[in-house]
Each structure stands twice: as structure tokens, then as C-alpha cells.
Amino acid sequence: MAEQRLWAPWRLEYVKRPKEGECIFCAALAAGDDAAGYVLHRGRRCFVMLNAFPYTSGHVMVSPLEHLATIAQLDDETLLELMTLTRRSLAAIRETYGPEGFNIGVNQGKVSGGSVEDHPTSTSCRAGAATRTSCP
Ligand SMILES: [Zn+2]
After folding, report:
1. 102: domain range?
2. Who surrounds ion ligand 1 at CB < 5 A?
3. What is the reported pLDDT for 38?
4. Which of 2, 46, 56, 129 has the highest CB neighbour count under 10 A?
């Protein structure tokens, strides 16, 4: 059971639609309506956002506020806040869903599977009982 692939067909709507070249992270921040943009928290240097097309319940994305292309470009304070907010997100997901585990990854670059190739994110998905998840 733990070797099953995660299939999230509801993501096809997002995967197949044409991308407008806009950075969804910067657009959500600029829109000014955090609830509508699924922005859960704004920190000093990073923010937490729900994935509109999640692989599983609790799929959140933690990103720098600044549009930078790689993790290597983050200063130490931003990198620390990225991981601190990731830890806080895991605690919230743990309290809400009680998962057996998590998948945490960093998307950087188009081949990483992330849909935004030049705004790195740390993603956290809950892993349900006997389910193996793979997040972009
Ligand atoms: Zn951006």
C-alpha cells in the first residue's frame, strides 16, 4: 500500500490549461486579498499559501516574498524563515489532520515539477495512512 502512486486527477485542470507566464506567488501577494489568493500567513521574508490544486489535503507552499530564482539567492534570514514557516505549517497540518508523515520538498526550476520555474518554494503535503505521496 505504501508503494502506491498518488493520483490526483483534479490537478489536470491546472496542468492542462495554458499558463499565462505570471508568477502565481507574486500575483497572490500583489492582489491584496489573502483569503481569495489562499495566502495563509505573511512573514517578514516569506509567506505560506495553500495550493489551489493540491495533491492531498494540507498541501501548502512556503515561499520567499521576493521573486528570486534559486534557493542559493536567499540570504540566511530568508532561508531560516522559509524553514521555520515550513515547521509551523507541519505542526498545523499535524494538529488538523493527524497524518502519519509528510513529504517536504523544494521546487526550483522547470524540471523540478513545479509550475513556477523561477520562484522557489518549500512544499509540504500531508501523507495519509498507508499512502505514499509525491509533491512537486
Ligand atoms: Zn514570484
Report:
1. 24-127
2. 23, 25-26, 67, 119
3. 94
4. 46
